[in-house]
Amino acid sequence: MADDSTGRSPAGERVWQAACELFSRDGIRSVGVAEIAATSGVGKPSLYRNFGSKDELAVAYVKAQAVAGLESFEVARQACPGDELAQLRHVIARVAGEMGTPGYRGCVIANTAIEFSDREHPVRQAVDELKAEYLRRLTTLVARLPVRDPEALAYTLQILMEGAGAAAQFYSVERSRATLVEAADRIIASYLRQ
Amino acid sequence: MADDSTGRSPAGERVWQAACELFSRDGIRSVGVAEIAATSGVGKPSLYRNFGSKDELAVAYVKAQAVAGLESFEVARQACPGDELAQLRHVIARVAGEMGTPGYRGCVIANTAIEFSDREHPVRQAVDELKAEYLRRLTTLVARLPVRDPEALAYTLQILMEGAGAAAQFYSVERSRATLVEAADRIIASYLRQ
DNA sequence: TCGCTTGCGTACCGATCGGTACGCCTGTCT
DNA sequence: AGACAGGCGTACCGATCGGTACGCAAGCGA
């Protein structure tokens, strides 16, 4: 779960682990700092010494989740060097695969954007930046393919992934996963030059 | 904003209007009952006399939003009788058009599902039922088209609409709207017989 | 052994949450 | 006029929120 253990005390590390677990399961706003402290078995002040506030902890969590997602581009590049189409499929498959994890609750970043509707809120601003970065990487990858309108295709794929993650929550995980890869293939095919 | 004014006192009606406005703008959990009462200019007890609790008020709000969405199927049927493809495009265009409303914050029902991650919560259960109903209607409509796999197509379109609504929040409203109709057309075309 | 720093938990803070006890005020029927 | 019923707001409730003051205990060099 993306542990960038940068100068964290033992108690701080336990807080971090508990926070990631609880945030992933219930969202951010549903989890109180007292619950995080109790779950991790440390006192609240240890939370505030290692992270300045609940908001900062939330930002760290969201960023950690995001880098895990962004890494998939690098992983795909190394898995299928030179074959950009295979890389794109790899990235999409990663999103589809993630839906299989027990208690899957959709894209953490997208969910956090909804939990923090105020665009001036620091957590929301982090979310918006991270979402933009993901789309940028996806567009860069798609632009390497022989397609007519790479930006449109990238945006369409982004929407598909977003929607599949959301649908997995109130519809079927399995159908969402299957539909995502199937639809992505159809869309990609419709954009590929011949 | 879908006023099913069933036996609501004047004060209750003001509460209802204020609640719809605030819930739409900030989400449900971000809005306290005190804020609703203050905005509507009535006391809190009037809220609790007309609606039993904040949860019941939230359920009423979510249902009202949902029926507004479900009505679009009927509207489409009357606008283009006999032409199911045009009806489908009509329904999709309605979702796309809704994104243009100022302060658009994505699909209310989907957002509420994220705000209430506990599937046993009454608000969440209402959300899940309403989402299922929407997909059912969409599937019924798609099944009238000469397509190979109507259920798959309906689910794909659902995911597209879901994703476009989400993307409109942290990306561009205009791109999300344009991409939704464009992608839907491509997907539909790829499923149509010949 | 002393004094000091460091890391930590207990117990508390004010603010806000959803929800309610209670009384006022008005219109109506007698 | 007087008794009554309904719709309403003030002022409060306990619980929980994020955040903090403070003191204890362990490890260190002298």
Written account of the structure:
- 2 copies of one chain form a homodimer.
- The first copy, chain A, has 194 residues and is an all-alpha fold.
- Chain A has 2 domains: 9-52, Homeodomain-like (Arc Repressor Mutant, subunit A, Orthogonal Bundle); 58-191, Orthogonal Bundle (Tetracycline Repressor, domain 2), CATH 1.10.357.
- The first copy, chain A, is 74% helix and 0% strand.
- The first copy, chain A, has 9 helices and no strands.
- In chain A, α1 (10-26) packs across α2 (33-40), α5 (84-98) runs antiparallel to α9 (173-191) and α6 (108-115) runs antiparallel to α7.
- The longest helix of chain A is centred in the middle third of the chain and has 26 residues, at 54-79.
- Chain A starts with 9 loop residues before the first helix and ends with a helix.
- The model of chain A has no long low-confidence stretch (mean pLDDT 95).
- At the A-B interface, α6, α7, α8 and α9 of A face α6, α7, α8 and α9 of B.
- The structure holds a DNA duplex (30 and 30 nucleotides).
Write the layout of secondary structure elements.
2 copies of one chain form a homodimer.
Chain A: H1 10-26, H2 33-40, H3 44-50, H4 54-79, H5 84-98, H6 108-115, H7 122-143, H8 150-170, H9 173-191
Helix pairs in contact in A: 1-2, 4-5, 4-7, 5-9, 6-7, 7-8, 8-9
The structure holds a DNA duplex (30 and 30 nucleotides).
GO molecular function, one term (chains A, B): DNA binding
Pfam families (chains A, B): TetR_C_13 (PF16925), TetR_N (PF00440)
Protein name (chains A, B): AcrR family transcriptional regulator
